[in-house]
Amino acid sequence: MNMNSLLSINKSGLNGLQKSMDVISNNIANVNTVGYKNRDTSFQELLNNQATAQEVALSPRAANTALNEGLEVNQENINFAQGSLQNTASPYDLAVEGQGFFGVYDQNNNLLLTRNGDFHPNGSGQLVNQQGYRLSIEATVPQDRWPKGNVRIDSNGTINIQDGERTVQVGRIPLYRPNNTNDLQAAGNNLYRVVNGGQINPVFNGGLGSIQQYHLENSTVDLSDSMSNMIITQRHMV
């Protein structure tokens, strides 16, 4: 093994550790982000070749050992475990207790998934997230015609508005989830897109969990654990 090979192996190790540090830093930055799911990384050894008896070992201790080309980050894993729920004062703050995701439509009408239920009405009366993407709702009354009054969203996603002495059911909020969460790819802003041909369909009536009004889901990042991982990774990079 020549010097270039040794330097290449060291470089691959440093690149892998830097990617791991980027993931850890992103976790720490999102420790207070609503609905954020903790990420971690796994490493993979590159091209491992077993040394033979015909090859000259670098030292007696290195005899009969394998030679490899370094390592790389195999993938970034997203842990979709349930986060704790916190009480809020807004009737449009929603949290999922279960496996489902809210659906939102971006400016190109693409369906994206999120666990961040921090919604609010826009100027047209539509419920949207912080990026202005509208919440997926099966409306029985057009959102710009919803009556004024107290909004009640039950655990099945049914939206009722108290209009004087009468209660009007204006729509239902579905939940989404692909059969395999590996089909979910982070799309930024705490949103996910479905890839690999994964199929998703709206599910009503609590099939993927219950919707909790006046609640938001906390981030699943454990700050102390993330700080420990950062220190360990930094030591390996030295």
Radius of gyration: 24 Å
Biggest sheet, strands in spatial order?
12-15-14-13
How many DSSP helices?
2
Average pLDDT reading = 84
Number of strands: 19
What is the CA–CA distance across the termini?
23 Å
Q: What proportion of the residues is helical, as a percent range?
A: 10-25%
Largest sheet report? 4 strands, antiparallel
Regions with little confidence, pLDDT below 50 for 5+ residues: 55-59
Give, in order, the helices and strands.
Answer: HEEEEEEEEEEEEEEEEEEEH
Structural class: alpha+beta
Shape: elongated
What portion of the residues fall into strands of 2 or more residues? Answer: 25-35%
SSE inventory with pairings:
Blueprint: H1 3-29, E1 39-45, E2 49-50, E3 66-67, E4 71-78, E5 85-87, E6 94-98, E7 102-105, E8 111-114, E9 120-121, E10 127-128, E11 134-135, E12 138-139, E13 150-153, E14 158-163, E15 166-172, E16 184-188, E17 191-194, E18 209-213, E19 215-217, H2 223-237
Antiparallel strand pairs: 1-4, 2-3, 5-19, 6-18, 7-8, 7-11, 9-10, 12-15, 13-14, 14-15, 16-17
Helix pairs in contact: 1-2
What's this model, at a glance?
It contains two helices and 19 strands.
Written account of the structure:
The chain has 238 residues and is α+β, with helices and mostly antiparallel strands. 18% of the residues lie in helices and 32% in strands. The protein contains two helices and 19 strands. The protein has helices at 3-29, 223-237, and strands spanning 39-45, 49-50, 66-67, 71-78, 85-87, 94-98, 102-105, 111-114, 120-121, 127-128, 134-135, 138-139, 150-153, 158-163, 166-172, 184-188, 191-194, 209-213, 215-217. The strands form eight sheets. A four-stranded antiparallel β-sheet has the order 12-15-14-13, with no helix packed on it. A three-stranded antiparallel β-sheet has the order 8-7-11, with no helix packed on it. A hairpin with a 5-residue loop joins strand 7 and strand 8 (111-114). Helix 1 (3-29) packs antiparallel against helix 2. The radius of gyration is 24 Å and the shape is elongated. The model is unreliable at 55-59 (pLDDT under 50).
